[in-house]
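Extended Data, panel c. Modelled sequence:
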Amino acid sequence: MAATTATDTKKEEAEKEEESEQVVTPWEVSAKDGGKIDYDKLIDRFGCQRLDDSLIQRVERLTSRPAHVFLRRGVFFAHRDFGEILDAYERGDKFYLYTGRGPSSEALHLGHLIPFMFTKYLQDAFKVPLVIQLTDDEKFFWKNLTIEECERLARENTKDIIACGFDISKTFIFPDFGYVGGAFYKNMADIAKRVTYNQAVGIFGFAGEDHIGKVSFPPVQAAPSFPSSFPHLFSGKENLRCLIPCAIDQDPYFRMTRDVAPRLGYHKVALIESLFFPALQGETGKMSASDPNSAIYVTDSAKDIKNKVNRYAFSGGQDSIEKHRQLGANLEVDIPIKYLSFFLEDDVELEHIKEEYGAGRMLTGEVKQRLTEVLTELVERHRRARAAVSEEMVDAFMAVRPLPYMFE
């Protein structure tokens, strides 16, 4: 065994120091002293790659449609093997999409919608099937919720997911409590046998006081990465590749999965990963279910949205009109600008607002008014779509069935 060098030691010390500065796990995201997440450091630590313009241009060329606003503006900014997915697609090989939701709340906030809005675009653009996992078991392990409550929230959250417009002929939605067994459980067992306890501690940070339910969960989230977990969909297609759109805090699950995949005879799952959606109070703030004013929810009324944006959205504008006209706004910290960057689709209008506001010719109140309009329209559209989702539609999306036209 090679001796540890001074360089190795320094690298380990730097990694430990960086980990102490910011914590990013599937269950906790925080930066030291309330600072911002350093995504460059996170990419280095996780070992993923920046999503560059050449990949975005390839997506446009292969799909013959403009890149999604989340791609154009760097909301989805990192990846693992996305280029290989595009290579395979260009050769005529198919792939499938996999994303998920941990159902721990009655209503989703806008940050929760982002992966589903983007996944809908990918499904439409590449004309591929999608599996959506509802990790009701995970929330039972991590939250103070009963199994029955987790199952109920899974169905409620599914209505919001369906409202994003997914194609039922290409989409299978499943709750873990309702689906796990058979071929899916075999893959879970295969994955679990190939990950040591020490590896799990290193990846997820489990501690001695964590119950074994938490330690046993990662193979459950890993299993949908392998097509054989869904024999009713992909029988005879065990070589199918999988692409996962998700926030970067989910990366640890799939680092583990990618390590195991070749030993099980599967392709390594590919990922395309997003930034974190900031709280209204600023990027140093945290959206919290215990603080409804930290986020815009899909159940908020137009009045709620206006009130939250005006009262709580952190502004980069100056503290007086005279000073603002002179110095302009600090766009780097301004939450209305960041939210518009996510949800205002018109690139020309966004650039105009940023230019005018940054130069002090546009005031904070005007920017907040435009954001209120954009968010109100988005939430109202979602509310109408969700109201049309019946219990029978939830059952239909969750039905274990073949999808005969999923690649058409």
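The chain has a mean pLDDT of 93. This feature is highlighted in the accompanying rendering.
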